[in-house]
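quick one, 187 residues, struct below
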Amino acid sequence: MRQKTRHEFCCTLLSLGFILSISPLQAGNNHYVNIHGGDVHFYGQVVNAACSVSADSREQTVQMGQVRSNEFRFLGDWEDPVPFQIKLEDCDTTVSQSAGVLFTGESDGKDPQVFKAGEGAGAAQGVGIGIFDAEGNLLIPDTTPVWYAPLQDGENVLSYIARYRATSTTVKAGDAGTEVWFNVVYQ
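---
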């Protein structure tokens, strides 16, 4: 085997050095630093629903007003009704012909037919909130609807009534609000 001359050896080193000096530049274009920046959560569903819930019905507030605690004279007394509505849009009766609403939330510990009213240290005691459908049926928390409204193509309005109810023989004043969620159920 022939030995390389000094000139050939220097040229080989020079060529190797040139290749090495180019490689970091090329590698720099493909060099990435990966630092965790957070997470993205995607929530959603694909459903075969006859309607969509109107934007103003999705996050609504029902003003129950002020009721004096001494107006509840007996266990089970109801106070004045407060109407509210859930609007449905873009309804298609070829998908479903009727809709009802399932209301969910925390029921009152003394009267499971109504929702618990009030939270925390300043909460009212001995009172809950009942919801009635357009036919006057009391809608028990977390129970499927007993009444379904017939749908028409386009917009539909489902009417409901909320009422305070005495769940104890003594009602104490305080915050009597609650949070209730709903799902539209189609037939």
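The beta strands are 52-53, 82-91, 98-104, 115-116, 127-132, 138-139, 149-150, 154-166, 181-186.
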